[in-house]
Design brief:
This protein has about 60 residues and is mainly α. Helix content is about 90%, strand content about 0%. The chain has one domain. About 0% of the residues are buried. Pfam families: DUF2065. This is DUF2065 domain-containing protein.
């Protein structure tokens, strides 16, 4: 359970860093995402999800 909290805290730190360092770029990205089809966003999300799971597996083994 400790690893889960550590991972969630790391996500919060990274999201905060992006918001702090690149607020204008994040706004532009959000606008561009509004124009994308849901299918495209799902595919991008699936790719990031699989890449994250593979990286997690490799880092833990």
């Amino acid at each position: 359970m400790s690893d889960l909290w550590t991972a969630l805290c790391l996500v919060a730190v990274l999201e905060g860093l992006v918001l702090f360092a690149f607020p204008d770029a994040l706004k532009r990205m959000a606008e561009q995402m509004q124009e994308m089809e849901s299918r495209q966003l799902r595919i991008a999300g699936a790719i990031v999800l699989v890449a994250g799971l593979v990286a997690l597996y490799l880092s833990r083994s």
